[in-house]
Amino acid sequence: xxxxxxxxxxxxxxxxxxxxxxxxxxxxxxxxxxxxxxxxxxxxxxxxxxxxxxxxxxxxxxxxxxxxxxxxxxxxxxxxxxxxxxxxxxxxxxxxxxxxxxxxxxxxxxxxxxxxxxxxxxxxxxxxxxxxxxxxxxxxxxxxxxxxxxxxxxxxxxxxxxxxxxxxxxxxxxxxxxxxxxxxxxxxxxxxxxxxxxxxxxxxxxxxxxxxxxxxxxxxxxxxxxxxxxxxxxxxxxxxxxxxxxxxxxxxxxxxxxxxxxxx
Length: 264
What we know:
Helix content is 22%, strand content 32%. The protein is an alpha+beta fold. Strand 10 (156-161) and strand 11 (165-171) form a beta hairpin.
């Protein structure tokens, strides 16, 4: 491993970054089934940085990943990988968003200090993501810090909602630094993405909410916020292709009266 000390004199609206320490290494990616966006480091590397993280007010550190001519930033909250000493464990859903393949070699730079973001703007990738977020805004607000620690412009990341639902968001904020950390009370502004209206009937009944949702990143130890439950007969959800515990968006549709009923 190669250690460097680097000085940074520039300031920004997030915070002033004066000094940070990095270690360069090459690790092999192993995708793991985790419901968060934090990676795990080999034990010897993790131990090397444990004392430095202890003095930080942030809940995670940042890692710069360079691979296939691309560069990404991820959060490390102290987790250690199992097995081989040269393995970097990345949650499978996050690896897919970053276009990192299992077994790929990545150059890793660890950064101890990074600026804290006061405000972060994000947007859902699809209208379905937006609809699920609208239904579960409180749940996401209370659990976002447990799932994500580091953001940068253009980052696409997964968010897990409830038991089985997963949505995808994209960071649209620009930062003076290469990346920034989420912290308690970071304001997260979510732009809306309303589903296109398809007909005159649905135009009248489709949701017309276009205002952004403002959330705050709160750190909690347990999953909070209940997801409303709908009871569906087994024969119905089989025909519709619905899985148990799946989160859906329900709308009330107005059915125009038939010509026969109107004439009577």
